[in-house]
Amino acid sequence: MTTLLKPKDLARLHAAAFRESRPWGTEEFEALLASKHCFCVGDSHGFAIGRLIAQESELLTIAVDPVSQGKGHGRLLLQHYHDEAQARGANTLFLEVAKDNTRALNLYKTMSYEVISVRAGYYKRTTGTPVDALIMQLKL
């Protein structure tokens, strides 16, 4: 599943997947991929980027092309992220997700993530509306 995606490809996929919030730019992906702590799994349909510090891995973002959404690709990506994080020594995974992102929230819950905290008004939609971020965790 892992294909070497270029930062511009990641930015394009991210922009397509996150139409209601600010997408990440090419420069942001370049900086992440240059970090020795970050790793990326994915292909032309989507990707997941994680960061490993000590034995914790944070899912920084996961994006699936809208054409591929609802076909199990997100679940497959998330499983590959879990496998890669564990292979790198992680025993705990965490992420944050917008409270109104029901598709992602349902995916994380079905994969045994649990809400451990809330960041009130953390995200801003393109309309200016604030949305809470849910911090979720999975122990491997």
From TrEMBL:
For this protein, the record's SUPFAM superfamilies field holds:
Acyl-CoA N-acyltransferases (Nat)
GO CC, any one term: cytoplasm
InterPro entries named among the record's database cross-references: AcTrfase_RimI/Ard1, Acyl_CoA_acyltransferase, GNAT_dom, YpeA/RimI_acetyltransf
Q: Its Gene Ontology molecular function terms?
A: protein-N-terminal-alanine acetyltransferase activity
Q: Which family does it belong to?
A: Belongs to the acetyltransferase family. RimI subfamily.
Mind telling me which NCBIfam families this protein's record contains?
rimI (TIGR01575)
Q: What is this protein called?
A: [Ribosomal protein bS18]-alanine N-acetyltransferase
* Organism expressing this protein natively: Cognatishimia activa
